[in-house]
């Protein structure tokens, strides 16, 4: 019996690749659409950032919870599948619009009929109407989009609400904008909508409207770290350091105790990035005094100092961290980070110093 023939490997030249979905160029997108896309795509300021920066050490820093080992629920699987399908649809819409951008109402009507649940298409459509000076028609279209998109497509509806609010903020009156915001709050996740509204009003330099939103948000969602962090961020970007400190103090009076480290640490990160790094250091020093064995916090603190580039401060912090009395796995992580830093930014003498320190630690553990 002869063995089955081997499959021939396709040459790179003979394999026809599918064209990638091309996003519409920025030149083709009206400022309203650009602004809303920026709002929708913006990274949230929350604990996710801290988790992301410390993801390499989470297993060592904190015990793994049982929930992490559970299989995804049926609902979670369905939601993940829906997300994938929506991403595919959006990519296809971007390819279609990018390849041949509609240039008439008739063409846009055909497009929304072919993809009635795509917020991307609806937003492109009413941005097109705005470019023609048809503001009332754009408003009517936005209402039509909200009625047309399936109630199951919550994210798509939310995108339209944000674009609609952004349009009203840019071209309508303040009363009309606030009335629309009130409508949106009653039909969407209010916390999410408030956060989007703050971004819109801050970009358009309407500080009094930002203040109104923050006041309402922190009263209604006083147990949300994300809401309080947004308030702290606004104070810092406005140059109000004292206001940021008071907001942090207020947040700790409202948030549950288990959220305090999360809130304080994220506020410290904001200080490093857009406030005063010295205040950021004070925040981290205070947290580490109470949680000296939290390797994730040490790692994030080190990240901020490394980003700052002050070698004296960086080495001093590495020295402190590598003199901690932590389990061997955690110490190994810290020594490796220190060594990697010296290899990338230090000298041969610095590298040898870290290796010597690490060897001394190993020998001490072995009782040599």
From TrEMBL:
Residues 119-365 form the Pre-mRNA-splicing factor Syf1/CRNKL1-like C-terminal HAT-repeats domain. It holds the Pfam family HAT_Syf1_CNRKL1_C. Residues 53-63 have a biased composition (Low complexity). It comes from the Eukaryota. One of its GO terms (molecular function) is RNA binding. Its main location: nucleus. One of its GO terms (biological process) is rRNA processing. Keywords: Nucleus, Repeat, rRNA processing. Residues 1-10 have a biased composition (Basic residues). InterPro entries: HAT, HAT_Syf1_CNRKL1_C, Rrp5, TPR-like_helical_dom_sf. This is Pre-mRNA-splicing factor Syf1/CRNKL1-like C-terminal HAT-repeats domain-containing protein.
